[in-house]
Batch of 2 targets.
Target 1
Amino acid sequence: MVYMDNAATTKPYKSVMETYMNTGDDYYFNTASIHTKGREAARLLEAARAQVKGLIGLEEYDCIFTSGATESNNLAIQGIIEKKKRSGTTILVSEIEHPSIMNTLEAMKEEVRVKYIRTTAGGMIDLAHLEELIDEDVIFVTIMAVNNIIGSVQPIQEVARLLEGHPKAHFHVDATQAVGKIQMDYRGVDSISFSSHKFHGIKGIGALLSRDGGKLSPIIYGGGHEYGKRSGTVNLPGAVAMARAMRISGEAMKENTARLSRYNEQVQDKVRNLKSIHIHPGGVPHILNISFIGAQGEVVVNALGKRGIMVSTTSACASKLRKLNETLSAIGSSKEKIEGSIRISFGNMTAQAEVDQLCDALGAVYEEIKEVLE
Ligand code: PMP
């Protein structure tokens, strides 16, 4: 099996699995227990927290461990808006956010006024439009670091500078596709969210780093864990394993970026000159979005699957929602390009031989379906 769907999730590093197992075995105690072992577990949790903050470069921020980016995004949006809604009601959001942002805002539409920041054809937010939209009623701005469908990298520092003059507006960044993959400067951002399983950690753990976690209403109430912002017995093995996965990914980042860029180029070279193939604008090396114009992305995904290669379709936003992908629509892609699109995503474990196999398979699938292509 050749796994090329790393933007969906990644295989955990072996050593991370070991860390998870060993921590679960040796420190199964509740970090909230006041006995000696509970305190030891709590110290380990604080060490993992400090490591995560340090590796992101936001040592002075609060770090709240969650179950993953979906929960972190919900906590940031609901938790901050609840606190700020008396001072304004406007929310600015890019058009290409993940459903965990879009659907949370949709659920709050009675309470807030959501305005969408336009996207350029290259997949970048339109900064001039953001400048037009920002006013004194804005309490929350949310823009992802790296888009999960095409891989475009958003100008986070430029937005942070633009928002300097608007201190009331909380700036949230969904950094799920960036952390552990590309170096980014998050200074000036008020909160960032991510999931461990996207950078070869395990599933079920993530974090929200917030400039001032104290100004956040909880969305999960209970025994007061995580500074009262996220109750429930803390997933200590997951947090320790996440810190480790983050460290390993960070140490190997430069080498992986160069290697994955070569893979990305190789696949592009393979299909670039074929008729009825469109390569969507990208950004990060690990995500590549290609359209087979005239075909259904699902057909291509299945044809590659028969050859043992796992990729994603982007024709539907999340395959369950059955609507044209929002990111591709926002960048002005045609219906045919959207319907025929697939997402190939590399991970730190992707090997050259697998990319060669993918290229051969893409060639074979193209021959198989070229009659239907426009
Ligand atoms: N944001 C982005 C940009 C993502 O790619 C994902 C995962 N598809 C999420 C949020 C949600 O992550 P999780 O499913 O781990 O909660």
Note: The chain has a mean pLDDT of 96.
Target 2
Amino acid sequence: MAVLITGGAGYIGSHTLVELLQENYDVVVLDNFVNGSREAVRRAVTMIGGEVRLIEGDVRDRQLLNRLFADHSISTVIHLAGLKAVGESVRQPLDYYSVNVQGSLVLCQAMQDAGVRELVFSSSATVYGVEAPVPYRESMPRGLPSNPYGTTKAIVEHMLEDLCQADPSWSVVFLRYFNPIGAHPSGEIGEDPRGIPNNLMPFISQVAAGHLSELSIFGNDYPTEDGTCVRDYIHVVDLAIGHVSALKCLSSPGLYIYNLGTGRGVSVLEMVAAFESLTGKRVPYHFAARRSGDLAAFWADADKANRELGWRARRSLTDMLRDTWRWQQRHPAGYGAP
Ligand code: WQD
């Protein structure tokens, strides 16, 4: 029996693929390559060995999914396919509802018809909403996310809860990611944002590499120690291992929720200083206006995953920055032409 990873050629997907191959899982990847890359899958297989069946297609394509479930014996789905740029979700909300919500709905319908009822869903800390106290705990109710991207994640969580209520034979895990950064320590797999990065880590590393001139730090008047926002950055390899750990719950039906974070907050200025001291590169920056929708500070209570799955984030901030920089230096154009 195989595990299907939707979005398996993307940033989190390709790192999850590596960890699954390492544990000898038989894997099928479905990706439409809007944000993912064939090369990431190829490198994962070259590095670890094993065989991956790679299918190009969209998660909203019901006929394709029907064929996929008919042709491959899938026991479990790790559903990562989706759009993830917060700013873009504000400008083009319908794309986000279509890909993230409709995509998850079509996938679940196809799974139901195929008799596949084990699902790991890629969710986000953003579902705790703008008013939640820190640290975020899984026992807290969902709140109002501050952007359409977050709303789509919350809607899919609702949908899956209703599904588990209606049919208790499903096993579903929500993994609520905090801020994944870093790259595989080999330097061969990493984050390859299209165009100018929206997120802090790839922006910093492209400034350090001289591809971008200066970092804009969005706001220095937040109620935090140094005035800049605080986030819980987690190494993408730890996050990927979290998915493999989550597969263990699926043997018993039910709904499980886990935060995947380190439990520690780091400010934007701390990130810049740590990156400069590790790489010896300067990261010029200036303070700019706050970015709309940003929260001042949040981080995870990550104890539940540790208690129940035996998982915890083991890699340090230094590991995250060093691996990001190695990937940036080895593959300055990402998976594109060198
Ligand atoms: C981090 C901090 C910015 C860029 C988002 C999504 C979240 C998750 C991960 C996934 C913030 C500041 C950033 C820059 C800056 N989703 N910043 N200058 O917004 O915490 O989380 O990505 O797919 O759901 O919301 O991450 O990396 O964009 O920002 O000052 O050029 O860095 O203001 O405080 P964020 P981020």
Note: The chain has a mean pLDDT of 97.
